[in-house]
Amino acid sequence: MSKDIIRAESVVKILGGNVVLYDASVAIEKGEIFGIIGPSGSGKTTLLRLLIGFFKPEKGDVLLRSTALKGRQHELYTSVPNNLEIVKNVFGFASQIPSVYHNLTVEENLAYFGHLHGLTPEEINKTGTVLLKLMELYESRETLAKNLSGGMQRRLDLACAIIHKPKILILDEPTADLDPFLRTHIWDIIRKINEQGTTIIVSSHILSDVEQLCDRVCIVHKGKVIATDSPENIKKRFIDTEHIRVQTYPGKYRKLKKALAHKTIESVEEEGQELVITTKNAEKALPHVIKALSGAKESLTSIAVDRSSLDRVFMQLAEEDQ
After folding, report:
1. Measured between alpha carbons, how far is residue 101 from residues 14, 104, 150, 152, 172 in Å?
2. What is the structure's pLDDT at 321?
3. Which residues belong to CATH 3.40.50.300 in the chain?
4. Top-level class of domain 4-236
5. What is the pLDDT of residues 78-128, one digit of tens each?
6. Each residue of 249-263: b (16+ CB within 10 Å) or e?
């Protein structure tokens, strides 16, 4: 049986007369943390909204596999946009801007969203207590949401999104506008939610976080899904070189560039006060670099290795668009 819990099949979405997504396909496996990344305006938020059923595609379909569907004992696929009433409780959703009600307390917000999903007061109380402790909001349970900090509101929004124990949690820019400490805290909570069996689909423009958090990612570019794989394989596909940046004294770079000629080094260029050495494998090239510096009687003052990253993938895509 397929491991996919949800998949988009050749979906096309038109908004305002413009094709926002064209023939986009993606499959998310049960239990993984899956990232959707892309430049602003690429269509990634539209794809998220198609997956959860907020949008209906002009062409193609979004299919969900679950036993939570009425009258079924086995996991089968059903169309999300054509069965919203049946599948809605399978999903949890938290957007970039928290959707909590400012004039309700933390507990009242949880009770409200639990009621929307048909939970009993006993279920809301039991699950709510667990979530408040997970989100570190238990001591603030009687506080009005408008009096919470931005980070606390974001955590409350997450709690409201999973009060009904969804199988799939969709997060659109969950750490936008948060400082590094709060971002790390939110990602830790997301990992804990995933460890309890929830499949998580997340979009984020903070690519270093996505690189560390996600099992797999897909890149949406100009309305198309151009790649889906692990972060490491994505980097290998788009970036096949690394850069070694060195500064030396007395800095006779013309002579040093000749000394650096080697089979492990593809090119050497001067950039300001640095030499930028391009190589396919920095670890193999570094011993030769050090040896060349010694032979040229140059003292190393600084050295750094720019390895492949999702940020570099995006920079390369941007350069190709120009």
Report:
1. 31, 6, 13, 13, 19
2. 58
3. 4-236
4. alpha beta
5. 999 998 888 889 999 998 888 999 999 999 999 999 999 999 999 999 999
6. eeeebeebbebbebe
Sheet containing strand 76-79, edge to edge, reads: 18-29, 4-15, 59-66, 76-79
pTM over 0.85: no
Q: How far is 233 from 242, CA to CA, in rounded Å?
A: 15
What is the Cα–Cα distance from 204 to 210, expressed in whole angstroms? Answer: 7
The one-character DSSP state at 137 is: -
Average per-residue pLDDT in the chain? 89
Write down the architecture of domain 240-321 according to CATH: 2-Layer Sandwich (3.30)
- For residue 312, the one-letter residue type is R
Cα 164 from Cα 80, distance rounded (Å): 18
Cα distances (Å, whole numbers) of residue 77 to 26, 66, 82, 123: 15, 7, 12, 28
The dihedrals phi and psi of 297, each to the nearest 5 degrees, come to 60, 40
| Residue 250 preceded by cis peptide, ω within 30 | yes
Spatial distance between the Cα atoms of 76 and 64, rounded to a whole number of angstroms: 8
CB 4 within 8 A of CB 65: yes
**Residue 284: which H helix or E strand, with range?**
helix 282-295
**pLDDT at 189 exceeding the cut of 90:** yes
For residues 108 and 118, give the distance between their C-alpha atoms in angstroms, rounded to a whole number.
15
DSSP H/E element including 59: strand 59-66
User: Given a cut of 50, is residue 1 above it in pLDDT?
Assistant: no
